[in-house]
Amino acid sequence: xxxxxxxxxxxxxxxxxxxxxxxxxxxxxxxxxxxxxxxxxxxxxxxxxxxxxxxxxxxxxxxxxxxxxxxxxxxxxxxxxxxxxxxxxxxxxxxxxxxxxxxxxxxxxxxxxxxxxxxxxxxxxxxxxxxxxxxxxxxxxxxxxxxxxxxxxxxxxxxxxxxxxxxxxxxxxxxxxxxxxxxxxxxxxxxxxxxxxxxxxxxxxxxxxxxxxxxxxxxxxxxxxxxx
Length: 228
What we know:
By secondary structure, the protein is mainly alpha-helical. The protein contains 13 helices and two strands, in the order αααααββαααααααα. The chain has a two-stranded antiparallel sheet.
């Protein structure tokens, strides 16, 4: 058997090598040559959104509530300016949970949710007796506003700033106990030139509505702030 293995080995080994070369892919495979090359237009129009992932993504909490009619106002398209149409008088709507829901909607990035949440939050705080209704909600409302101020989208951050000023104008010094939680995100964005002026105006408004005690709170988080 040893003699047979040796003698056959001389003949079989070259044959095996030839067989392997036929079955195994060559180092220079033609596959890369037929692989479609990127077009110059692809660089100008990058695919930033997965068209298949968008359909499978569940709607946000605000979008789901809006679709079910849980928000008693709708967008009315005007020729010059959009507006909200309320199904009932805003004065008769309970702030809990509508004000919280509208604050959640400030983080939306799609139309019409962006307009409805922003304008609805503003108009609800304009009703008579808004302060008495909003102050008890501050412990739950401030974390929601904080999430909007921490959002990476610039428009969401701007809506958060506007909502914060609107809330401060209504609740006044009552916001001071919760202000530190909101100032951290303002301090981070203050280094961005495009937000510096708007944040400064926001801080001045907070001082105006919050009183002298607000200055010390702001300076504890933003030492460079100059009181008005």
